[in-house]
Amino acid sequence: MNEIVSYAVLPDEAGAIAVITIDNPPVNAAGHAVREGLVKAAKAFADDPSAKVAVVVGAGRTFIAGADIKEFGKPLQPPSLPEVTNMLEALDKPTVCAIHGTALGGGLETALCCHYRVAVKSARVGLPEVHLGLLPGSGGTQRLPRLVGIEAATDIITSGRHVSAPEALKLGIVDANDDGDDPLAAGIAFARRVLAENLPVRRTSEMNEKIEAVRGNTKLFDELRAAVKKKAKGQISPLTCLEAIIDSTELPFMKGMAREREYFMELLNTPQREAMIHAFFADREVGKVPELKTGHARPLDGAAVIGGGTMGAGITVSMLFAGMPVTMVERDEESAQRGRQNVERILDDGVKRGKFDQAHRDHLANKLYSVSSDIASIASADIVIEAAFENMDIKKDLFRQIDQHAKAGAVLASNTSYLNINEIASATKRPQDVLGLHFFSPAHVMRLLEIVVADKTHADVAATGFALAKKLKKVGVRAGVCDGFIGNRILERYLSLASFMVEDGTSPYDIDKAVLNFGYPMGPNQMGDLAGLDIGMANRKRKRAEGWKGRYASDYMDRIGELGRFGQKTGRGFYIYENGSRIGKPDPEVLEIIDQVRAEKGITPKPLNEEEIMRRYMAAMINEGARVVEEGIALRPLDVDITMLYGYGFPRWRGGPLKYADMVGLDTILADIRSFQSEDPEFWKPAQLLIDLVDRGENFDTLNKKANF
Ligand code: T1G
């Protein structure tokens, strides 16, 4: 044993019940010391003549939450987790795993190697290695199918989802649920049952009935392969997981374990594993911001939302889902009722999708939610979120009114997607209480929340923004004030570039295909059709009215829009959507419009191939991301990655645009940008940060590691 894994015997029952406790905060990750300690403790149990059954339990808030992710990429120190878990399973005396918190990955695999498993009601289990670009590497792909069957095992392993204790009981992953919340008590109670009923050693690896039932069923295997391939969208590990699961039906157990280990080592060395583990740790680092060192979140017991349109309704519902009472305020009774209809439409959809029942829907709609056309009804709100029309004058006028009616200490937020929060705050007498909370549509679904900290925003107010993100189960990213903050500012650059490529000769459909093949859920023109081409038109008009001069090759887009073709909502945009289908077909008339614009501008089309398209697309995204970090709009490069992962569909198995840049090599990215400068010197001016990093032989991750907030 060691101080991380202990072995003891209960004083009662004549020492028949041993307890092996893992105590490796914060999540009992199965690092080297845990693995060594488990081997010693298991040996102590085997050599202890009085001990008849052993309970394996985690101290603190959870059972083992997995292998120690921090060890990946470093030389593996023996014993490996598979060696430890196989040794556990081979014991000749019964063991009982008592699960609480989250038994995930190697944690669940350790539990599967105990002979019995009991979970407290609040526990969750799972094999989320797929989210790290890996597969369960300690027998999960061989033992779980033996317990639950190949279909359920495929669902759990390739989705990486958590399974609740009741579902785990139903599936046969655990043998019992315990109503208490004390895993040791639950484990001891089950151990007493083992003694009383003289329950035998029962090894999962020897339970072959369920896998033999599907052995050779190639039709089933091919159906599973097709389904997993469709969902994987370019990620490798889900398909590898499935091959290992199928192996479990064909190979003897130890051969299946050997194959699983080979797959694991292959995946460990893939760029996808490096990228996804970067994203895992970035998820946790992004919430560490300077304001949390001194700021204290204010109460968030009740909210008011100004505006009942799409965003106002989505924001309202996301807070209702978090159990927060919300008053929605609109300018008059009719608009207030329209706002209520928007909210109830979302709630009714939730019932239809089986997310919650009618009673819960009614509780949210009638008990937690109210509407009003009187701004004075915001008086008791802890936080007021303005989600009105994207016009500075309208917002400033609203904030003057909010300032008059909101209680002292209330946090005043604007949901603006690009306007200057400093200017909005200047309309109030309390700029220190003002910040930006940029939600993404649909606000009750999208997890990204840009928390825009203005010049005078108090640390408490910023901390409250992060507390709200956590409460709403969103990913909060701190942003500074600029046009478009982090995400929309970067988006504008690579969308501009896409329009240049079209005007210069590349088909918009080739661009969409290239971006889709890169791993995005859709290309920029498909996204434009989804969001509505009229929004882009209005934005460009606003910017021109403000005297913006930059090149935005948008004439062809404006001509499509002027035909009233706004995309999916009008059935036609870049694509034709027949009979309300969401899958569009390329529109020959669009290509004619583009050819016409090129001819008017005397452009000789020079179409680009897929590789050339993506080199430019990524270079534009990375260059602007570097500027956003350089200017302090984003605290670290990882904040840019998280923003693009959660708000803009960047494929998670590539880690984010700046992680991708590190993996391609910043010198290569910079050389690309310099090679494109002849095409457009202004647009392709390399970010100084990029130049400096290359000169210093550093990369974006160097900055991530230096950051200490
Ligand atoms: N290894 C190392 N550190 C970990 C860790 C892990 N597995 N899980 C969490 N941490 C750190 C995390 O970085 C943070 O550190 C702190 O613990 C609290 O985490 C062989 C190969 C368990 C649900 O993928 O899903 O097993 O920021 O902020 O919100 O087949 O952590 O405080 O310094 O997330 O309460 C499989 C990953 C591994 C589970 C808790 N297991 N972890 O969530 O706290 S691969 C996982 C989580 C594997 C085997 C394979 C969550 C959590 P810091 P947190 P939380």
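qc> The chain has three domains: 5-247, 300-481, 507-606.
qc> done
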